[in-house]
Amino acid sequence: MTRESQPGPSRASSAAPRATIFEVGAPESACVLAPALDVPDVDVESALPGLARSAPPRLPHVAEVEIMRHYGHLADMNFGVDSGPYPLGSCTMKYNPRINEDAARLDGFAGLHPYQPLETVQGALELMVGLQEALGEVAGLPAVTLQPAAGAHGELTALMCFKAAHTAAGDPRTKVVIPDTAHGTNPATVSMCGYETVTVPSDERGLVDMRALREVLDTDVAALMLTNPNTLGLFETDILAITEAVHAIGAYAYCDGANLNAIMGVTRPGDQGFDALHINVHKTFSTPHGGGGPGGGPVCVTEDLARYLPGPLPTRLDDGSFALHTPDASIGRVRSYLGNFGVLVRAYAYVRALGAQGLLEVSEQAVLSANYLRVLLRGVFDIPYDRTCMHEFVMSSATLKREHGVRTLDVAKRLLDYGFHPPTVYFPLIVDEALMLEPTETESLESLDSLGAALRSIAEEAGSDPDLVRGAPYTTPVRRLDEARAAREPVVRWSPQGE
């Protein structure tokens, strides 16, 4: 069968590009009628010499129906969890219940001002204290700050607490240990805190090499940063031995909570020996986080580290009211106000709706989905660590590349033609031609089967018509871009022709 006769998604073609909002409408069109001026009319040039425009601003002149169609078209061009499966490994892009959006938009929450007197925001403070208690219980770490605005911000906050504790003990240290499967933000955070990064390799199981770890643990090590489950989707079976070895040299153990969606209600990082954990509430606890935000990265720590947390912290008083408290050795604020409050409302609503049993079922379903998909794709793609995984797993296109010249990037681009967002590609770095899939607990069995069938079909195309796969995508608004040029020379501003 030739490429021209391929059925289905390979034959689909993108619609002709639509005009920009500036290229539709007419000068006499408008969708807003301004009210009559109720203040004195001022000649700007006379009142503010040199600041008046030389020409009217270039604004679109469109009718309401035109602007609605414009934004509707932009929405259709975008892809999100409402469009289809979003198996973005290590990022937990799952469906978020709309009722939590409604909760965040209640006037009593959305209409608050951060400088209101405390007696007028008791409900908001009660919610934050309740969320702190719930997250502390999930983490097994009792002291919690909600201030950090995202996961990397939470990492920074935790390491700053560690540094403050070492300094207070008169024992400043210089190094932080991370595994070779670490998220890229981990070494960046280490550098921002003024530490040196020491990397330990993974063993043949895809877990931390215990012998290599013990060789680098000395009294200059301030902390170990570890993701558990790790970025291969594997649980660190030696975790108790790992944290024990770290504590034996007087260092702290930090857990990157990006993969908490796999273990809620099953095991707690605090019980594994971790001293601190950040939680991506914008991933695990119901806030859409595409497009760079908003986010939330609360940090949970042991009782011993509570005195270093950033303040102020919402707290419950003996009389049942709520106030703000700053710990005596606090590292200071890490964010204005008390955090991204709307994100915290969504997380609180999510926890209250599901309860302890519901959170456990989230993890169980996430792990089941990942293992189902892993087995479904066994023998189709390489799976270098083909054993029971947690919420995600890593496969590889190495064989497709070697035998047919089809790389992981080609597979990812072709998947767009089948209506699926591609998984994370080329990470973790220790797997050649890696694809990391996290199907999440919110995808149905039919959805998983469809995703598996699409990937199987692409693997078959790689063998029968590799040029078809290498030329993808065909159905998206634009074809394959020069990604290096797009990153180095981005065009982010539209200009009319001739200007």
Report the C-alpha radius of gyration, rounded: 26 Å
- How many strands in all? 12
Q: CA-to-CA gap between the ends?
A: 48 Å
Q: Kindly state the mean pLDDT as a whole number?
A: 92
Dominant shape: globular
CATH class of the domain at 99-354: Alpha Beta
In which range does the helix fraction lie?
Answer: 25-40%
CATH superfamily of the domain at 99-354: Type I PLP-dependent aspartate aminotransferase-like (Major domain)
Largest sheet geometry: 7 strands, mixed
Strand order of the largest sheet: 1-7-6-5-4-2-3
What ranges have pLDDT less than 50 throughout 5 or more consecutive residues? 1-8, 10-15
What is the annotated CATH architecture of the domain at 99-354? 3-Layer(aba) Sandwich
Layout of SSEs?
Layout: H1 44-47, H2 64-77, H3 98-104, H4 107-110, H5 122-139, E1 143-145, H6 151-168, E2 175-179, H7 185-192, E3 196-200, H8 210-216, E4 221-227, H9 239-248, E5 252-257, E6 276-279, H10 281-284, E7 299-301, E8 313-316, E9 322-325, H11 341-376, E10 393-396, H12 398-404, H13 408-417, E11 424-425, E12 434-437, H14 445-464, H15 466-470, H16 483-488
Helix pairs in contact: 3-11, 5-11, 6-7, 11-14
